[in-house]
Amino acid sequence: MSITLDDVRLAARHTAEHLVRTPCLHSATLSRLAGCELYIKFENHQFTAAFKERGALNHLLSLSADERARGVIAMSAGNHAQAVAYHASRLGIKATIVMPRHTPNLKVRNTRAFGAEVHLIGDGVAEAGDYAHQLADEHGYVFVHPYDDPRIIAGQGTIALEMLEDAPELDCLVIPIGGGGLISGNAVAAKGIHPEIEIIGVQTERFPSMRQVLAGDPVHCGQATIAEGIAVKQPGLLTRELVGEHVSDIMLVDEAAIERAILMLLEIEKTVAEGAGAAGLAAVLSDPERFRGRRVGLVLCGGNIDMQALSSVIQRGLVRSGRIVRVRVGISDVPGALAELTQLLAEQRANVITITHQRTFTDLSLKATEVEATLETLGSEHTREVIQALRDEGYDPVLPANEVHPDERWGGEAGPQSP
Predict the structure, then answer these.
(1) Residue 9 CA to chain centroid, in angstroms?
(2) ∠ CA 311-317-322 to the nearest 5 degrees?
(3) pLDDT tens digits, one per residue of 41-51
(4) Coil, helix or strand at residue 24
(5) How confident is the model at residue 321 (pLDDT cuts 50, 70, 90)?
(6) Helix %, strand %, coil % for the chain, to 5?
(7) 292 with 36: CB under 8 angstroms?
(8) Measured in whole angstroms, how far is the alpha carbon of residue 223 from the centre of its chain?
(9) Whole-angstrom distance, CA of residue 30 vs CA of residue 108
């Protein structure tokens, strides 16, 4: 079944009064860092913090009275689950959701809070889907597919309508791909309005299923990714046709690039993005020459990241940008030696987070002890100044291998939220 621009426009009329018209804003700071003009569509501003509400609501509004009475069922790794649960509750429809066992607790908890019956089954969306279809057959539930459904695809495409109204000068859209519903709907809408616009998809290196399917290759996926929202092993049948027709390329990004993008969005735009939501920015920063000088629209598709994961991303990002560093030095094993070291660090404006010393696991002299300090600095340049100051005072500082990954292009960059 084909999807047209008219289908997307009809979905926009049906859903507009129920959804947040999220902002599409130019990011001055990220544009400077990326070398292109970046516009971000903040779909994390939806009530459930993700774009999935658009397609789910469009599907639910199309149900007959009999279908509403039977109830709906969906399988999802999180955002589709919350969207179906929330809007089903609003419309008085019973919702049952099947989620993979390792879905982040935040998404499971929120889905239950919206009143849905939640089952945690399988290690991925495919296994959860098999169980959801089984329950649908047993109980007569209406199945609401997360991506391979015309009404879902048309609903997701309303994002591009809004983006091109707010920023009609865009010449490229960079959109994450999981099952393909988001990029399919937006590609249809954007190409229908501006046939010359380029649509580029983004997947993680660990879950490149759509790219592999379109290339005719066997699908091989990893075990886990921080972008679990696009960790789909089997893309849709309808969506792969639309992606093959409208999408010029699918870029792959690694985990470190996604983590970096999450931190940049938090630090620069003051907004929370989950891994899938940050994938577009990760792609642009991974290949800046490809986008240099262009007007690029990014879909920040969701902000439902587990707080423990976000905390780890922040800490690891501070390490990679040289703002948290571990340093080992040997000092004389005499009273006052440790105080002299910490005084020097204080004079260099290096904040000591933790400090330990030990005498056993070292090849230093028996009259020496090894000190390891975790320091907070202003960035990679400040870290180098601290290390040089230690050397100037006769210390021999050692930074553990792979601890510091300074990236001068963005490390420490933080500015006001873009207008």
Answers:
(1) 27
(2) 135
(3) 999 999 999 99
(4) strand
(5) confident
(6) 45, 20, 35
(7) yes
(8) 17
(9) 32
